Amino acid sequence: MNIHEYQAKETLKKYGVGIQEGIVADTPEAAVEAAKKLSAETGTSWWVIKAQIHAGGRGKGGGVKLAKSLDDVKELADKILGMDLVTPQTGPEGKKVHKILVAQDVYYPGENEPEEYYMSVLLNRNTGRNMIMYSSEGGMDIEEVADKTPEKIFHEEIDPRVGLQGFQARRVAFNLGLSGKAFKEMVKFVFALYKAYEATDSALFEINPVLKTSDDKIIAVDSKVNLDDNALFRHKDLAEMRDVKEEDPTEVEAGKYNLNYVKLDGNVGCMVNGAGLAMATMDMIKLSGGEPANFLDVGGTANAETVENGFRIIMSDPNVKAILINVFGGIVRCDRVANGVVEAYKNIGDIKIPIIVRLQGTNAVEAKKIIDESGLKVMSAIVLKDAAERVKEALA
Ligand code: GDP
Ligand code: MN
Predict the structure, then answer these.
(1) Which range marks the domain in which residue 98 is found?
(2) Are 206 and 260 within one domain?
(3) Are 234 and 345 in the same domain?
(4) Is the CB of 368 under 6 A from ligand 1?
(5) Which ligand is in closest contact with the Cα of 87?
(6) Which of 118, 212, 222, 224 to mutate to test the pocket of ligand 1 (most atoms within 8 A of CB)?
(7) 209 Cβ below 6 A of ligand 1
(8) What is the Cα–Cα distance from 229 to 12, expressed in whole angstroms?
(9) Is residue 105 within 6 Å of ligand 1 at its C-beta?
(10) How many separate domains does the chain show?
(11) How far is the CA of 83 from the centre of ligand 1 (A)?
């Protein structure tokens, strides 16, 4: 699960990570009040208005703007709230901005120039260890740095038996070229950030940029957090940060029925039991000339109700030209699934697109008979190759 920048920063602060302070707002008036409050608390006289959406690259899309007066704050808040923000990560339709973060300006002039770094904590699946990835080249596309100057990206692997060690945090500060107060601040920052990552059972904490201010403070200016869904039951406070407005509405709907649904761009809807079979089915759809419209794993219980919910969700996508149901009857019997399909079909009624059902496993022959004798416009198959042929015919 992803959370917003303002929520991620609240979380970081709780664990002692220095942050760019801010207050979230959902109207221009609230933004002005937030700006006044921030000035009273931090002494800032400029502010940054930051669109809160679950996507990066907001600065490039016009979702991060500097305000030098309260009038600016109001004007920019008015402009950014409600806009469909397009960034390199949102796709061409963009994402609607419902909230903004009014933050203190932390790029104020001083003794030194402010400097931007990159830092993330994540699980390295190759070694099975957490790692800190960092670079002096922050603020910009880290993908580009990785591509063009990979030697500028450093890693620190954490041994789970002893945790993050002092020498490792010091090596981070050293490799970033820091000294004096900034060095000490960075060591503290790294420890606090790692603690936040571990304590929240996160899969990723990405801070880009980490800023060295002109007076040598180290703070998080941006924050992207990906929480491990499987650990959310241990973090009720974090689970409450979920913003369903940021998620695909059909996927949210599917979640209510315990269906694992991921929307894709193709024209053949598919309903399958088991994630591995679902992947194989998507391959097969491609081989027969179609493009999968979705991934849908109905899990172990493919009964009439699940099939009906699955049908409705798949058909809410106007691109779908055919539906392929591919179920292996291991624990669930194929005849039961076949009855479920027939019942669901009758309940929904007006289905205009061809449906191909491939049932294999326990009672597969009986199941095919049920489908064939139902009098409905459903094509049946037992062998996967036949099902693929039917899909091809349906698309022709
Ligand atoms: P992203 O574009 O979604 O990654 O959003 P960020 O939070 O990283 O902000 C984008 C850019 O806005 C940063 O790299 C900074 O250059 C700029 N920015 C952020 N905060 C401030 C600030 O307080 N003052 C100034 N002048 N610029 C800022
Ligand atoms: Mn950023």
Answers:
(1) 21-105
(2) no
(3) no
(4) no
(5) 1
(6) 222
(7) yes
(8) 19
(9) yes
(10) 3
(11) 18
**Which is catalytic among the residues 5, 185, 206, 246?**
206
Token reading at 277: 């079979």
120 is written with which tokens? Answer: 């993330």
> Where residue 152 sits, what CATH number does that domain have?
3.30.470.20
Please say if 107 is a catalytic residue.
no
Q: What is the pLDDT of residue 380?
A: 83
Phi and psi at residue 6, to the nearest 5°:
-65, -35
Residues 346 and 360 in one domain: yes
Among 19, 23, 38, 48, residue to substitute to test ligand 1 (most atoms within 8 Å of Cβ): 48
d(CA 93, CA 266): 18
Predicted local distance difference test score (pLDDT) of residue 301: 67
Per-residue model confidence (pLDDT) at position 307: 84
Ligand 1 pocket, mutate which of 4, 64, 72 (most atoms under 8 A from CB): 64
19 DSSP assignment: B
Q: Domain ends where: 105, 139, 167? A: 105
Q: pTM here?
A: 0.84
Same domain flag for 89 and 163: no
Domain at 86, CATH number? 3.30.1490.20
- CA 139 to ligand 2 center in whole angstroms: 6
206 is an active site residue:
yes
- Catalytic site residue from 6, 118, 134, 194: 118
Q: Choose the final residue of a domain: 90, 105, 120.
A: 105
The strand ranges marked E within the chain are 22-25, 47-51, 64-67, 84-85, 95-96, 100-104, 115-124, 129-135, 153-157, 202-212, 218-220, 224-227, 260-263, 268-272, 294-297, 322-329, 355-361, 378-381
Series of mean pLDDT values for 10-residue runs along the chain (396 residues): 97 98 98 98 97 95 97 98 94 94 96 96 95 94 92 97 98 98 98 98 97 97 96 96 91 88 93 92 90 89 80 90 90 88 87 89 92 86 82 84
